[in-house]
Each structure stands twice: as structure tokens, then as C-alpha cells.
Design brief:
globular, aminotransferase, alpha/beta, 39% helix, Acetylornithine aminotransferase, four-stranded mixed beta sheet, Aspartate Aminotransferase, domain 1, Aspartate Aminotransferase, domain 2, 2 domains, amino-acid biosynthesis, seven-stranded mixed beta sheet, identical protein binding, 404 residues, single chain
Amino acid sequence: MITTPTRQDFDHYMAPNYAPQQVIPVRGEGSRLWDQQGREFIDFAGGIAVNSLGHCHPVLVNAIKEQSEKLWHLSNVFTNEPALKLAEALVKRTFADKVYLCSSGGEANEAALKLARRYAVDHFGEQKDKIISFTQSFHGRTFFTVSVGGQPKYSQGFGPVPGGILHATFNDLESVRQLVGDDTCAIMVEPMQGEGGIVPATQEFLQGLRDLCDENDALLIFDEVQTGVGRSGELYAYKNFGITPDILTSAKSLGGGFPVGAMLTTEAIAKSLAIGTHGSTYGGNALASAVALAAVEFIDTPEVLDGVKKRHELFREHLQAINHKYGVFKEIRGMGMLMGAEMSPEYEGRAKDILPLAIEEGVMALIAGPNVLRMAPSLVIPEADIKEGMARLERAIERLVAQG
């Protein structure tokens, strides 16, 4: 007997580390989704900045279909053509000389941190091991990355955290100067904090980090897992600032929904990731690489990237109009198709209350902490979907205000 899974089956069979919404989407096309009952939703969540081309985009569907009939997985005992093509595409489009492929953003950041420490040991000795990151940052859920991330709630309760990790204040260069020194091997930063509230870095801050790294023989790591692959209006956000990191990590939008991650760096630094120092069983498999290559080639065009900037302005205009009417937001901020609306003092901590109301009105959104409504839709979301989605979001916010 065939049964249809229900939301109650999640509570029955799945580990309780997530609390998904009550609806179960079963089909998607572009920026719209349909649940088990056939109800339609406009997707402003984008799988948490993952679905860069929406749902079932023909370019990605064709890539996965074609590759699925050729080769899926070999392991890293062999290389494969899609992985080599993807690496070449990333190198030619960025500052990097070398690429390491893996399966997620957490893996990419783990590799970046391990490489930074290994590079420091190779060139300066084991005493140069300090990593500086920032409060409210987020870099993944491995034990190393969650410890480097600046939100203790994610590392508490698992025993002693790795040592040699220091946290400064984001956008406060003086707080970094107080921590950096000869023992610093790397500074890790998001060009725009994602989980920390959709907070863009300032030009002066990132330039100051670049200068401090140069002065202290430290590596600058940009975590572009959430801001990368067109999300900011450039292929990678570092291009918006004109500041080049030593190591860059990428995932989420890179696969358009297929699990894939990458670490990019220079030839000189990559030499420290010698044979046997690190690995990823699924990293660089042919199926993921083929999909990611299709996504990168489609996104890295003037039409798509200029469209991201245009859509950003449309989102901002709609959110400002909603706020003018209801006064629920203190600030609207972000870059490209990654935007955050911080709640006003009267609605402090109530961003999360918008999400179920939005679902009932037929639009999917996110939060970045309890006080910031977050949107990370498809980079190519149609303007008609933006307009309709915002109308639905406005109805949800009207209901929030009515609740008092």
C-alpha cells in the first residue's frame, strides 16, 4: 500500500534538529511552488539563497539529464571532465589559480581554515595558528567552522571547542587591530553577514582587513557561501569592493539546488593542500560539477547580473512602500538578491512571526535571527512574481500589525 507522507511523519521519523513549516512542497517551477494540496506559493526564500535560478530551470535540468546518462561518480582516485571544466570556469572568472571541490559550504569553509593553518605551519611555524573571525558570523556546522563562527549557541553543548580562535566585532576595524599579530594565520569574514542579520561590510572595513593581513603575513578568507555566484549582483561579492582575498569559499547558489561547494585560492597557497592533507568523498563528482558549471556559465552574464541589481531595487521599493504603510521595519539593507528588513523597536524579535502568516498568504520568506526578515529569491525571479509576492507579504504584515 502506497501512502502519502505527511508533516507528522517528520516528527515521527526524522531527528528533531529542524522545525519545518507545516506545508510540504511537492513541485516547483521558476519562483513558484505547489504543496500536496495544490496550493501555490511564491518563493522569496530560495532554499536559503541556494536556488539561484529558481526551481527546475531548463538550463540546470538539461545539464543534470545529460550528465546522468554519462557518469555520476568516480571518487578522487580519478578526475572527470565536468570537474575540470568547472574548475577552469571558476579560475578564469576570479582571482584564483586553483580550485578544491566539495559538497557544501561547511566543507568549503573547513577546507579553507585547514589550508590557512597548514600554509602558516609550512611558511612560518606552528606558533602562527590564530584565526580571527567576527561575532554574529556564520561559517558552517562542522565543529571547526561552528567554532570559528561568532554565534556561541551553535557550538555550546558539544564539549571543548578548538583553540586559537578569536572574535572581533564586524565592521569595527579597531577591534581587529587589538587581536591581530604575528601569531595570526588568517582572518575569515563574510563580505555581508548572512545569518548574522544581512549586514554588508563597509569598504573601509574590508580594505582594513586586507591591509592588516598583508602587514601580519596572514591570509584573508572571504566566506562567499551565501553572497557568491551572482547573489550580490556580481559573480562574487569581492568584486563589488575591489578587494581580493587569498582564499574564497563558495556553495549555495553555485549548484542552483544541487549540493556542491568550492574553495578557491592562489597557486602559492594551494601548494600547502598537498596530497593526503584533505579530502571529500563526493567532492568534484561529475553530476554536481556538470550542474554547477551550467549555473556559473548562465549566471555570469551581463543580462543576469544586471538583472539582479534591477530586482534589488524593486524589492527595496516594495519593502519601503510596505514600511511606509505599517512602520514595521527599522532598516532595509542587503546586496543584490539577498535582502534583510530589520524589525522596528515596536516589533522587536517578531520577524519569525511573519513566516507562518506569509505561508498562509502564499509567499515563502526567511529570517536572519529573530529580528530580521530575510529574502533570498531566484536571481531571475520575474517582476510579476516580485509584485504578487510582495502583495502577499503585505497581507501577512497587515495581519501581524492587527495582532498588536
